[in-house]
Amino acid sequence: MAAIIAIQITERAKQNQSFVLGLATGSTPILLYKELIRLHREDGLSFANVISFNLDEYYGLPADDPQSYHEFMRANLFSQIDLPPHQAHIPGGVIPRDQVPAHCSGYEKAIKEAGGIDLQILGIGGSGHIGFNEPPSDERSTTRLVSLDPITRRDAADSFSGIGNVPTEAITMGVKTILRSRQVFMMAWGENKASIVARSLQESPSPALPATQLQRHPDVHYLLDESAASKISQ
Ligand code: PGA
After folding, report:
1. Per-residue pLDDT tens for 58-84?
2. Which of 23, 124, 192 to mutate to test the pocket of ligand 1 (most atoms within 8 A of CB)?
3. Global pTM exceeds 0.85
């Protein structure tokens, strides 16, 4: 995955063009980010021509909160590569409620003005979410404020030292935003992802299981380890 990204960034740089990368948070992309950092340090991969857009942010967490996705991205990637800070975009966590619609349409506009997302990295949650598109999220959805599914909040409980501390809302790119990306790479590791991965591939596309809607994308790739792939029927 890191090699695929590195090649595309480098090709664009040779043409003096930017590469628009959609980024994810959570445990799944950490190894990818470690490898991108290694490529930057050891092979001179530059992110100077990259424009990034993160999928989502918890609503209510300021950027410097240790649990915010702003902080996750700073710690796990941005502080260790040469991506110019003004080229990295993450939905705001503390936008006043009455300004959220304008913030969300501004996020969509910024993606369009950057030329659209070239490659979107995704993980999948136990609820079947992509980004924080919880069930039901349909293919017309764009960046917006959403309520988090109880499964999502339960899965995050440990890292927040208890479910009561997990935010109840988030701002996320929509299913439509994700489906507009030119290429999508869904990554999943481990046995606890096996059921939801199989369902996302084998059930008909439906807002009730948002990840199934990736089946409508013309250039989507699943990167799975054996455990995560173990429940897909042949
Ligand atoms: P994880 O989360 O990478 O921490 O498993 C994935 C997701 O919820 O999208």
Report:
1. 999 999 999 999 999 999 999 999 999
2. 124
3. yes
